[in-house]
Amino acid sequence: MAPLGAKTAVFALSPLSCLRSFPFLPPPLFVRRVAASPSQKGRRWTAAARRSHPVCQVSSTEAVGDGDEDGVSRATLLWRAAKLPIYSVALVPLTVGTTAAYLQTGLFFIERYLVILSASVLVITWLNLSNDVYDFDTGADRNKKESVVNIIGSRGVTQFAANASLVLGFFGLLWACSETGDLRFISLVTFAILCGYVYQCPPFRLSYQGLGEPLCFAAFGPFATTAFYFSTSTKNLSSGIGPLPLTGTILVSSFLVGLTTTLILFCSHFHQIDGDLAVGKMSPLVRIGTITGSKFVKYGVISLYILSLASSLCKILPVTCLFLCALTIPMGKLVIDFVEKNHEPPRHRESKSSEEKTKPRDESTNTFQAAFDSSMEVPAATRDRRFDALGNLSVLQDEILCAILDLLSPLDLARLSCVSSVMYILSNEEPLWMSQCLRDGGLLEYKGTWKKTTLYRQNLSTTNNVGQEPLRFDGFNSLFLYRRWYRCFTSLRAFSLDSGDMQRKKIITLEEFHSEFDGKKPVLLTELANTWPSRTKWTMEQLSYNYGDVEFGISQRSSKKVTMKFRDYVSYMEVQHDEDPLYIFDDKFGEAAPKLLDDYSVPYLFQEDYFDVLSPDKRPSFRWLIVGPERSGASWHVDPALTSAWNTLLVGRKRWALYPPGRVPAGVTVHVNEEDGDVNVDSPTSLQWWLDIYPQLADHDKPLECTQFPGETIFVPSGWWHCVLNLETTIAVTQNFVNKSNFEFVCLDMAPGHRHKGVCRAGLLAVEDSILRDLKIDEFSKTNSLSDSAEHALSETHTKTMNRNFSYDISFLSKFLDQSRDHYNSVWSPSNSIGQREMREWLHKLWILKPAIRDLIWKGAQLTLDISKWYACLVEVCTYHNLPPPLDDERFPVGTGSNPVYLVSNHVIKIYAEGCLNSSIHSLATELEFYHLLQSSNSSLKDHVPSVFASGILAEESGSLQIFPWDGKGVPHVLGNCSLIRDYTDDPVPFGVWSKKKYELTDPETVSSRSIWPYIITSRCKGDIFANLRDTLSMDDALHLALFLGDQLRNLHRLPVPKFPNKNNLNFNNASMQVTSQDNGISPDLELIIATLNSRKREAKKRLTSWGHPIPRHLIEKVDAYIPHDLMTLLDLMKDDDGSYSVTVSPTWVHSDIMDDNIIMEPCEHIPCYEDRSCVPSAINGKIDSDDIEGGIRKWQPTHIIDFSNLTIGDPLCDLIPIYLDVFRGDVALLKHFMRSYKLPISKASVRGKRSRGALENPGNFKRISYRAMCYCILHDENVLGAIFSLWKELRNAQSWEEVEEAVWGELNNY
């Protein structure tokens, strides 16, 4: 299920996709209880032969089974199977309904009555026969001698007879409808039949969930009885009878009929409760027990007579009804007496000896115990403790109870285990404690059991609980826990080999691979790894010897990363009996153990990988070491970003199952969030799928299968579903890659939106019918690439069920892109392999470094960025301003920002695409306002900021682009009639920085595709951005950069800010955005700044929670306590003698985005380094070359700061955050050099000796500049904290924000 509040589209495939939600799925193995010798304690289990797909044809002898030994003839069995009394449920509603109509109209149509009666009997026959078929499929009627399927020996014939009965019955009802001329009749009858269908037919089978009785009440009461009442209507108006009105008589009558029929159905479960329990059929009688059930029957029968009496006295029913009901009192008493005397489960009664039968019956015999008596020889006198131990919770299934317990803490589980024996059992389940242990993440050392490991990790283990034997209880049985236990201990050593559908190849050429397999179908390659050293070196013993103390990542369903030392993992693997064992799945094994990379090489078929143009820290995870024990494996999934993959097995055997793109496996559900396109796949574990779901699949539904042996490499094309099960201990290596065959699919999957992501994985199930009609999907069926490739991979039976209208073709899939979204900077999906900035950088690097495939790159960029639209804008701007047309290298936007930026000749053209139109207009106007002020000042900053060549607005009108020049002053004509622009004033710069800050406080507008884009043209700076030069800089270059940034930030913060337009009243609609203090003397500009901080504080915890890892969860919970209640204190306000407040450090221009891609550096002549070496930085990139320290030669010098689109006004301390975290990477030495050059006060409170406003709230905090810096990091609208906890990984274990503050910003307190 999707989180509450999230819009989620859910796609599933076939009725079998619902199988996993039923805890009563028949196990793939029949398990038989074997009697233990008197000297043995506990229970011993043996497994019989594995059950195959449910048998459809059985002989009469097999079907009847042991029926003859009881002396029951075949004729008697047929009589029982006919269930003639049950057809009274057709007679009674019809008779009551027509009688009520006769009372109302005085008319009775005998022919219509008989036809409807016959049709109803046929429908009941369909229900009866269908129920036998479905109960036969589930095993509920396996030992039921009176089952029709068992008697005649054919499931198919029974199903045909059922369907024929339904068709004939429905035709009879349609005839009756035509006679009545009242559509209410056929509508209600249809609803009644639908109730019968969902009652017992897949995928609903609501009878197994205990909803049979309510459905029976609705079907035969309000629906059927009322429908038969309307059957007396006539379309012959001359008779004087038209459509019959609803009366109190028919309403009460239908209620009484429904209640009576419900009681009949309820009573029918008393003799078959054993069979219901054996297959998990949770009828109301199973849930409440036979004791309570017998009381329910008693009170139900009595209620019927009371209601009949009351209705007659109120003259709703005729007095004759009261007389007729009185005649049935002896029968009602007989039912009550019989149920009260025979409420015990039959199998329990049969198990009693003749001597025990002379003794009084036990007060209650639990139904769950009775169900397991058939398979486990438990003494009959053992009393089921479930109801006594769980009370009202006993109605919940064990699967639900275990899911609830998983939400509790270890201490809560310890307390709960003391409540009752059953709670003790459930609270000590190993899978529960495994989940508890993995929840915290971190380094793991297994202590023999998961409970001991959890207590040890949380320092809850004591000497008192070491070596204690667990308590044991009789009288509690759980099918859910048994099946989980079975999966923990089952062996896969004798697992059958595959059918050989997968192609196996020894050696193939690169051309053969691309033409037959790449992007088309999987293949097993048997000799690609023959020469690898890992074939002999990668054994468990050798890896444990060489890398025993190395930590490797563990794959498990946990939100936090779990690691284990290899030696500890081997110890765990040898003793574990987990249902879903841990296995090593480490994407950083090359960094943790670099020598492992020397033991294998990427096969020649897969060496083309377009992600290799990215640096290791920016490219997505692509290679994994996989080590796992028997029963472990990967559940159903599609590889991230629709990449292709190869997997080479070095030790052991793996079983693979694969489905083509768009074909969701049975038991799997795909969730795609409609807001951000986040993809989540809900799948059973690999072991559970193979054991529980796979045996239920028909031949045409089974996947492509293969067993992989040591030395073999499997290739999995883009988009293919696959599931892997380790048949024994395995060691493997795998890599994902992007090449020319899947590049466009990878780009498509990165594009914003949700529908195309769903279609790529779930096929046309992810699309509404209306959209399919609009797209004319049938036109694509002729070029169905899925069918073309899958026909070679799957057998003929597989391809018969494939959707011929679905095509895993880029032209087909791209039809489902959301064109209403701005593809350049819409919300980025959390499930995407790389971030939005990295995606833009990747495409640009491919454009520059791989010119031979530019046509392909352009197609991919069109899918992800809508690149053609921005290129058309670029051409229009160049033409209008007489700039040279862009060269081929200049057609692609540069940088990683949210606005397309082009380098054309000596100019930089930036198109404001980020956010909505209001946001873009304010960004350009603020930037132009800043440039105007800068040029009119004497600041030396103007020498280090690019000059403005032109600016304006691009507008698309009637399919063509037009240019409207604009210098940021006034309101341009193109915006005059635009509804998005509101509340502008007569100020010279109506969309300047103060208007921008006010706009930021309004409700954010939905970002969608628009047709108006501001733009600016500035001069192009020589050199390169610092981000591209970071690894090549010397120590002296780093020092000079720090001093340069200090100088220029000082110049920026000294620049005068625009005068605040006092006539702009600050009207805040949201009270939470109001300034928290009501003191006088706060100027409007400060009030606006504080209101902005308040709005961020209001969403702080929610924002941090959404960002998640690596921000520690326990620190997020402490945010409100750390941030000051009154945010005015962050501006370092001082209380003057008159009681009013003034700010000690005036608000300044704040760049907000001085990061490594917004600093330009030029090469320079080698000059001597700085003489002052009192403070040497550790590195500009985390390390520094000692040769550079000795040489002291500088090669690059910073010249310009660029991109002022995020300009604002606020505390100058905010500009230090991106510089320290992104440019300096937390280097304290560089921070010292920066502050030495900055030379402006950060706080004057201690200098002036006046009392800071913060002193009124928490004097200790506000004496520290580091506290203010840390608060700004928490309130930042970008994920600054993620950068902090990535740079200082040890702080993830910090217990307070004060600890983080001191480690990151403590140096500021010495300034």
From TrEMBL:
Chief place where the protein resides: membrane
UniProt entry tagged with the keyword Transmembrane helix: yes
Domain spans labelled F-box: 390-436
Membrane-related topology note: Multi-pass membrane protein
Transmembrane segments: 84-103, 110-129, 157-176, 183-199, 211-232, 244-266
Localization terms from the record: Membrane; Nucleus
InterPro entries linked: Cupin_8, DHNA_phytyltransferase_MenA, F-box-like_dom_sf, F-box_dom, JmjC_dom, JMJD6_ArgDemeth/LysHydrox, Kinase-like_dom_sf, UbiA_prenyltransferase
Keywords: Iron, Membrane, Metal-binding, Nucleus, Oxidoreductase, Transmembrane, Transmembrane helix
Example GO BP: phylloquinone biosynthetic process
One GO term describing the cellular component: nucleus
Bias (Basic and acidic residues) ranges: 345-364
Molecular-function GO terms, alphabetical: metal ion binding; oxidoreductase activity; prenyltransferase activity
Gene3D superfamilies: 1.20.1280.50, Cupin (2.60.120.650)
Stretches assigned to the JmjC domain: 591-754
Region named Disordered: 345-365
HAMAP family: MenA_2
Family: Belongs to the JARID1 histone demethylase family.
Protein name per the record: F-box protein
